[in-house]
Inverse folding.
C-alpha cells in the first residue's frame, strides 16, 4: 500500500492538514522510529487552506504515538482497590447499561454525567449529545472546552447573538495591526504564528502588540510588549478605549447603525485615564499610549487571544471588552480585522457546533431556549418536552456533585481530568468518591485510569473516520487509514451501542459515521453555523470546507423558524460582512465592565502570582507527547520561571529545587531564573502529571473560582509562596512515589 491519506493534525485548534503514508513503500526504506518500529510517514499537506503545507514538531511526530501504551480491551473492577480484569465488550456494555438504568430510575437522570473532549470528532460529540440530552434527559454533558474556550463562546454569544469566530487565517496576512493578548501563539499555535511573523517581517508598517506578563517567543517578535500584571487585562483594554475616545479614533457611523449600549460603556471607560491604568497594569503611560495609537491609526485591526484571557474569573468580561474595541472602531466584518479567539483543542469548534457543553444544544442552540429545544426534539423524533430545560452540570459542578453524592455515574472520555482540573487534590478526592466511573481512552495508563471502575478502549485519530473543525471554521475529513489495535472502537460507536441497549434502537440506527454526520448537519440548517452543504462525500471530493456552507438551493425545513435577519452570505470567509448580527435587533452589543482583578490576588502570606501554560513540544497532559522521544526530549522536565530580583530575595539559584505552595496544595520545580517573567509573577508548564514527574502538578496549586458568565475556572492565576528546598529536604521529601493502578 502506497496511497497517501489526507487528514488533519489531532493536536491544537490550528487544524493543520497532513498527508500520511504507510511505513513501507516501493523503492524506499521502511520508515521507522528510533527503536526500529515501523511508523507511518507524516508530512504537511500543501493543499490544505489553513496550514499550506506547514507542520510543527507535534504534527510531524504524531504517528510515533499510535502504538505506544494503547488500551486494547475492556477492563472492569468492582472497587478501586482491586486489579482490573479483562472482559468482553458484551459484558462491559451490560455492566454499563445496568448501572445507567439503576441510576436513571432510582436517583434520576440528573445523576448521570459525561465529561468529553475536544479530541472527539464531531460525530462522537453529536452521538453523545443525542444519548445524554435527548434519550436520557440529562444535560450533564460537559467537555474540556469548559476549561478552554467557554469564555470565548459566552463572549461571542453575548456580544453578537451567536458563537463563532468571525475571522479567518487569511486575515493574519491582511491586517495593519495584530493585537495578541493572553496567547503565546509562537509555542501554542506555531503554524499560525509563522504566517503572521512572516507577513510582519515583510511589512514593517504593520504593527504587532503582545500583552503577556512573560516575554515569550511571541513577545520577542512584537513591536510593543505590554508585560501587564496578571488580572489587569480589563484595566488595559478600558484604558486603550479611553484614549481612543479621547483622541477621536472611533467610528460613530458604525456604532450608531450597528451597535447598542455604547453610552453605558462610555461611562465606564471614563474612569480609566492613562495615569490610573499605567499604575494598575505596571506599564508606562508611553507604552499604553503607543498601543492605543497603533490601534486607532490602523485601518484593519486583528485581535488574537487564547487561554490567558479565557481561563479567568473575568473571562467573559475580558472577551467582551476586547470585542468592545472592535465595535468602537468598526473593526469587524472586513478583511484583516476582527476579534479572533484561537481554539485550544483540535475539534473544540466541532464540539461547540454539536452542542458539546452542558448549556448548549446542536446547531449553536442553547438549552434554556424553548424554541431551540423544540427544534432539536423534532429532528430527533422526541416527544415535546423531552429535553430538559435546565442547563446541566459544568465540569467543576460534576466534581462538586461527586463530593456531595448527587452524581451517581461519571463517564469520562478522551480527556484526563486527574491532571487538568483545578484544585487537583480536591478533584482526586472527589473522583475517589465516585460510585461508578467509566473511563474511555486510547491510552493506558493515564492518571485518570486510577479512578475508574470500567476502562473502554477507544479508537483514535488514524483509526476512525470523522470530521473536525478548526479555529477558522474549516471542516476537514479525517479518514481512518489503519485498523484500531485490539478491540478498540470509535467513541461514537460505543455511545450508540449503549443507546441501542438502553432501548433506543431507532435513534442510533447508524451504519457509519457518514450517516451520523448527515443527521447532524440537518440541525445546522438556517443556523449561524449552517453546514447543510457539507458531507463526508463532499469533503472527499472538494477537500476542507469552511462554514457557513449551506446546501445549494436548499429550502427551509417545514416548521423551521426564520432567523431575525438574513444569514451570513453563503461561503463567506468572514462572518458579519453585512454588519448585521444574530441579536433580535441585528445590532452588536457593547458591554460595560469595570475590572475586578484576580479571584485570588497575592498577599503577604502568598506574595507571588503563579501562571501556567503550554510548551511548544508538549500537548496538555502528555498522553501522546510524553510517549514520543523527540517531543519528550525537547522538554525533559518541568521548571519554574522566576525573575532574578525575586530569586535573589529568596536566595534561589538557577536549577535549585523550589517548593511552590498555595492554599490548596504544593509542588516542586527546578528554578529557571530569567528576566522573561515579570517580577512578582512565576510561571510553570501545565503538562506534568504523576506519570511523568513527581510533585510537579501545576493544578495542585490552582483554584476552581470561575467566570460567572462561562463557568470557566481561573486556571491562569493563583497566589503562591516560594520556598527554596535544601539538599536535606530534597533527599528526605522528594522521593518518587509508585503509582497503584
Amino acid at each position: 500500500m502506497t496511497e497517501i491519506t489526507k487528514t488533519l493534525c489531532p493536536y491544537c485548534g490550528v487544524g493543520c492538514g497532513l498527508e500520511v503514508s504507510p511505513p513501507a513503500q516501493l523503492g524506499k526504506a521502511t520508515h521507522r522510529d528510533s527503536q526500529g518500529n515501523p511508523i507511518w510517514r507524516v508530512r504537511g499537506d500543501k493543499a490544505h487552506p489553513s496550514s499550506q503545507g506547514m507542520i510543527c514538531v507535534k504534527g510531524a511526530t504524531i504517528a510515533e504515538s499510535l502504538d505506544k501504551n494503547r488500551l486494547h480491551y475492556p477492563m472492569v473492577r468492582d472497587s478501586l482497590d482491586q486489579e482490573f480484569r479483562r472482559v468482553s465488550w458484551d459484558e462491559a456494555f451490560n455492566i454499563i447499561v445496568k448501572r445507567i438504568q439503576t441510576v436513571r430510575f432510582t436517583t434520576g437522570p440528573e445523576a448521570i454525567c459525561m465529561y468529553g473532549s475536544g479530541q472527539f470528532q464531531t460525530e462522537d460529540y453529536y452521538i453523545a449529545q443525542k444519548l445524554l440530552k435527548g434519550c436520557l434527559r440529562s444535560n450533564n454533558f460537559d467537555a474540556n472546552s469548559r476549561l478552554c474556550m467557554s469564555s470565548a463562546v459566552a463572549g461571542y454569544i453575548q456580544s453578537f447573538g451567536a458563537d463563532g469566530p468571525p475571522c479567518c487565517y487569511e486575515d493574519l496576512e491582511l491586517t495593519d495591526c495584530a493585537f495578541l493578548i493572553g496567547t503565546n501563539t509562537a509555542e501554542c499555535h506555531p503554524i499560525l504564528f509563522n504566517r503572521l511573523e512572516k507577513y510582519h517581517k515583510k511589512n514593517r508598517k504593520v504593527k504587532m502588540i503582545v500583552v503577556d506578563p512573560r516575554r515569550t517567543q511571541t513577545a520577542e517578535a512584537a513591536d510593543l510588549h505590554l508585560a501587564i500584571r496578571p488580572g489587569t487585562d480589563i484595566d488595559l483594554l478600558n484604558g486603550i478605549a479611553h484614549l481612543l475616545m479621547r483622541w477621536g479614533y472611533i467610528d460613530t457611523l458604525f456604532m450608531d447603525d450597528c451597535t447598542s449600549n455604547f453610552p453605558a460603556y462610555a461611562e465606564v471607560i471614563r474612569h480609566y485615564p492613562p495615569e490610573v491604568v499605567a499604575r494598575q497594569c505596571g506599564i508606562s503611560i508611553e507604552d499604553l499610549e503607543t498601543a492605543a495609537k497603533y490601534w486607532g491609526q490602523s485601518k484593519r485591526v486583528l485581535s488574537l487571544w487564547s487561554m490567558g484571557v479565557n481561563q479567568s474569573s473575568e473571562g467573559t468580561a475580558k472577551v467582551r471588552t476586547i470585542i468592545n474595541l472592535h465595535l468602537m472602531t468598526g473593526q469587524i466584518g472586513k478583511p484583516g480585522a476582527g476579534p479572533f479567539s484561537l481554539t485550544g483543542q483540535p475539534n473544540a469548534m466541532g464540539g461547540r457546533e454539536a452542542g458539546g457543553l452542558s448549556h448548549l444544544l446542536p446547531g449553536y442552540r442553547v438549552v434554556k431556549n424553548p424554541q431551540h429545544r423544540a427544534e432539536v426534539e423534532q429532528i430527533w423524533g422526541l416527544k415535546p418536552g423531552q429535553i430538559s430545560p435546565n442547563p446541566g452540570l459544568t465540569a467543576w459542578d460534576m466534581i462538586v456533585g461527586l463530593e456531595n453524592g448527587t452524581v451517581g455515574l461519571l463517564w469520562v472520555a478522551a480527556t484526563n481530568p486527574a491532571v487538568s482540573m483545578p484544585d487537583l487534590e480536591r478533584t482526586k478526592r472527589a473522583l475517589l468518591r465516585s460510585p461508578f466511573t467509566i473511563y474511555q481512552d486510547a491510552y493506558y495508563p493515564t492518571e485518570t485510569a486510577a479512578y475508574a471502575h470500567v476502562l473502554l478502549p477507544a479508537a483514535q485519530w488514524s483509526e476512525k473516520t470523522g470530521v473536525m473543525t478548526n479555529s477558522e471554521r474549516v471542516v476537514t475529513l479525517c479518514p481512518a487509514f489503519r485498523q484500531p489495535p485490539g478491540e478498540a472502537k470509535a467513541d461514537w460507536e460505543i455511545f450508540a451501542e449503549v443507546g441501542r441497549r438502553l432501548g433506543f434502537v431507532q435513534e442510533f440506527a447508524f451504519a457509519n459515521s457518514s450517516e451520523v454526520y448527515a443527521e447532524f448537519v440537518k440541525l445546522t440548517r438556517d443556523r449561524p453555523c449552517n453546514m447543510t452543504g457539507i458531507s463526508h462525500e463532499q469533503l472527499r471530493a472538494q477537500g476542507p470546507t469552511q462554514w457557513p456552507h449551506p446546501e445549494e438551493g436548499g429550502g427551509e425545513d417545514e416548521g423551521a423558524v426564520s432567523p431575525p435577519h438574513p444569514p451570513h452570505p453563503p461561503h463567506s470567509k468572514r462572518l458579519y460582512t453585512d454588519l448585521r448580527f444574530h441579536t433580535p435587533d441585528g445590532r452588536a452589543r457593547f458591554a460595560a465592565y469595570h475590572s475586578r482583578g484576580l479571584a485570588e490576588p497575592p498577599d503577604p502570606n502568598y506574595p507571588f502570582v503563579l501562571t501556567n501554560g503550554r510548551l511548544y513540544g508538549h500537548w496538555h497532559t502528555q498522553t501522546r507527547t510524553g510517549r514520543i522521544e523527540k517531543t519528550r526530549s525537547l522538554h525533559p522536565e518541568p521548571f519554574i520561571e522566576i525573575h532574578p530580583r525575586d530569586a535573589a530575595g529568596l536566595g534561589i539559584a538557577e536549577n535549585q529545587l523550589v517548593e511552590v505552595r498555595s492554599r490548596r496544595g504544593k509542588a516542586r520545580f527546578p528554578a529557571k531564573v530569567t528576566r522573561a517573567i515579570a517580577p512578582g509573577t512565576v510561571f510553570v508548564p501545565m503538562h506534568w502529571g504523576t506519570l511523568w514527574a513527581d510533585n510537579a502538578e501545576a493544578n495542585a496549586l490552582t483554584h476552581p473560582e470561575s467566570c460567572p458568565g462561562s463557568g470557566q475556572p481561573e486556571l491562569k492565576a493563583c497566589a503562591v509562596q516560594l520556598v527554596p528546598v535544601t539538599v536535606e529536604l530534597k533527599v528526605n521529601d522528594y522521593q518518587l512515589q509508585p503509582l497503584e493502578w
